[in-house]
Amino acid sequence: MPQPRSDAPANTYDVAVVGGGPAGLSAALSLARARRRVIVLDAGEPRNAVAAHMHGVLGHDGIPPELLRQRGREEVTRFGGVFVDEQVAALALVDDGRGVHVRGSAVAVTARRVVIATGLRDGLPEIDGIREQWGRGVLVCPHCDGWEHRDDIIGVVATGPGGIDQAHQVRQWSERVVYFPNDVGEPSSRMRRSLEVRGIRIDPGRVARVVSRNGRLAGVDVAGRRVAVDCVFTSTRLRPRDGLLRGLGARVSQPDGEWTVVDEQGRTSIAHVWAVGNVVDPRSNVSVSLGAGSLLAGAVNADLTAEDIDLALVTAPVVSTTP
Ligand SMILES: Cc1cc2nc3c(=O)[nH]c(=O)nc-3n(C[C@H](O)[C@H](O)[C@H](O)COP(=O)(O)OP(=O)(O)OC[C@H]3O[C@@H](n4cnc5c(N)ncnc54)[C@H](O)[C@@H]3O)c2cc1C
Fold first, then answer.
1. Is residue 222 domain-resident?
2. Which of these, 244, 289, 263, 287, lies nearest to 43 by C-alpha position?
3. Residue where a domain stops, chosen among 234, 264, 292
4. Nearest ligand 1 atom, CA 69
5. Ligand 1: which residues within 6 Å by Cβ?
6. 215 and 185 in a common domain
7. CATH code: domain of residue 131
8. How far, in Å, from the CA of 242 to the mean position of ligand 1?
């Protein structure tokens, strides 16, 4: 196996990547290829685990998401990267300011830099039967799954004012769209008109249940009626899995306070701690996560190189220039 360029002691790495989804794996691959000692610690619960197929990722359209992760692991391993299946419980800055301690239940390592790529959690609307269909008949991303439901009867269940936009979006894939305002309330007359002129039906009843038959979504129950739909698009409450960043006091965005602030390459407000993918960017689909991981890796490697230069200058023997 190729060896990274380092004589560091065991359990000491150039970079620890926390999270082995597309963002973390992409960063790990570039850093391992740069001959950095890389460890990836991954709890193995990626956001799209429920989806059978992944779409819109160039060169990989339609493959199971697990296959991308498996290939990613193989590629990172090929360049000397190490994997531990482990939930990281805590991070702590090293006393001398030279890195970060990373601790799980069975593993403790120290790394010069840490990349947090822990993703986000989707909070589903509270509707009976919705979890059973999550990622199969109940979907969030028209660009990911719209093609597979082209010309179907598509229900759009609003969870906020963006529901109308989502109804207009999915109309691109099917002429048969039913919009359920649900608890959001009646659309304004202008909004209602915009839906009507595009042939989007509005059903004012509250969706009480998502109905499955033989594992497939068979409709929704609304105020004592069954409405036939082939799938449902909705929006989830996006919550970053950012406990490790919060634990270090990383700065979050204002005024909502939900998302950790990073610069355009992924540097957080905490020294040596970087973050990438859905944990800092809810819009980061698989392709964007892959790209962001690669961009971040270049910046982390440059940051390490700058430190390598400083260390070399400090430790190099003094050469006398006087005769
Ligand atoms: C149902 C569904 C379908 C989707 N389909 C598509 C699609 O077709 N195409 C597309 O481009 N996008 C799709 N997405 C979006 C896609 O899932 C995300 O863009 C992508 O997963 C983000 O990658 P990530 O690496 O940031 O996070 P994730 O893929 O979620 O990976 C994060 C990893 O970090 C791990 N982790 C979390 N906390 C810790 C910890 N403390 N210690 C160690 N490990 C930890 C998790 O277990 C997980 O393995 C879909 C999303 C959903 C919900």
1. yes
2. 244
3. 234
4. 29
5. 18-24, 41-48, 50-51, 54-57, 87-88, 117-119, 122, 135, 140-141, 144, 241, 244, 277-278, 284-287, 289
6. yes
7. 3.50.50.60
8. 13
pLDDT in tens, 234-283: 999 999 999 999 999 999 998 778 999 999 999 999 999 999 999 999 99
CA 276 to ligand 1 center in whole angstroms: 11
Q: Which residues pair with 15 in a beta bridge?
A: 38, 113
Q: What are phi and psi of 201, to 5 degrees?
A: -80, 140
Pocket test for ligand 1, best of 17, 124, 144 (most atoms within 8 A of CB): 144
Among 168, 202, 234, the domain boundary falls at 234
Phi, psi for residue 154 in degrees, rounded to 5: -110, 125
Q: How many domains does the chain have?
A: 2
Q: Are residues 18 and 116 both part of a single domain?
A: yes
Report the predicted TM-score, pTM, of the whole model to 2 decimal places: 0.95
pLDDT digits (tens, 9 = 90+) for 215-234: 999 999 998 899 999 999 99
Within this chain, do residues 116 and 145 fall inside the same structural domain, yes or no? no
- Domain that includes residue 276, residue range: 12-122+238-315
Q: Are residues 72 and 212 both part of a single domain?
A: no
